[in-house]
Amino acid sequence: MKAMILAAGLGKRMRPLTDHCPKPLLPVAGKPLIVHHLERLKRAGIDEVVINVSYRAEQIMAALGDGSAFQLRIHWSLEKTPLETGGGIQKALPLLGEAPFLLVNGDVWCDYTPPASRLQGNDLAHLVLVDNPSHHPSGDFGLINGRVAPASHTRLTFAGISLLHPDLLADQPPGEFALAPLLKHAMTSNLVSGEHFSGHWVDVGTPERLNDLEHYLLAAQ
């Protein structure tokens, strides 16, 4: 199974830290945030990773190269301007192939990688959901008997980690578009499974949360 890391965002919420450094390269516990992802993917048995880049792309590509330093093979999907999640994935599909793949938001930290076996049958997606953080108390989706629903009395937050089948993006025109509407449409057809992960997860979206993650990782060391 291949993996894709989403790393094309502008990092606006992380300013001024991202004025001169792209968010994936911000240091956390002695190494860039994206390197934590690469090391975790390697431990999970993944050898090929696609990374989409746009803002300060040359810095990220120069820092990670072809991935050999991490015993991985990195393929780069360069976007002139960010295409949002859906558009970015679609542009990278020729690099990802026709098999399901793991998708990871570059601005989250989590010590869990779902195995490929979680995506079964005709399902188009499998989502990892977590408890709602204080900055997102209303959550995103419901989880009922292993199936993800767009609406529910009890909602959880999408962790930014998922297994996707390329067919989820079939027939979408190229360009900038979001992934969420496609996921919700698949949910209404009962084609999205999910799981609740209760371990440590951080949406590294602000300097304050980046600092909190730094303290957590240093304490764990």
Automatic annotation (TrEMBL):
Keywords: Nucleotidyltransferase, Transferase
Pfam families tied to this protein: NTP_transferase (PF00483)
Domain called Nucleotidyl transferase: residue spans: 2-145
GO molecular function: nucleotidyltransferase activity
InterPro entries, per the entry: GlmU-like (IPR050065), MurU (IPR054790), NTP_transferase_dom (IPR005835), Nucleotide-diphossugar_trans (IPR029044)
Family matches, as NCBIfam families: NAMPUrTaseMurU
PANTHER family: N-ACETYLMURAMATE ALPHA-1-PHOSPHATE URIDYLYLTRANSFERASE, NUCLEOTIDYL TRANSFERASE
Name of this protein: Nucleotidyltransferase family protein
Organism listed in the record: Halomonas qinghailakensis
